[in-house]
Amino acid sequence: MTFEEIQEIAGIPIDHSFLKYKKEFGDYGWQVGKISMKEQTVWFHKVD
Questions:
Q1: For the whole model, what pTM was predicted?
Q2: How many structural domains comprise the chain?
């Protein structure tokens, strides 16, 4: 997903501080994979 898509869904701006919270996605069944600050994208993986 792009930073813009995440911002639309979450309703908050995405920046480098997002990295501090990436482990919290595990509580919701998702794992954060690759984060590209250059391309402004985040890869998510569904955790079974």
A1: 0.72
A2: 1
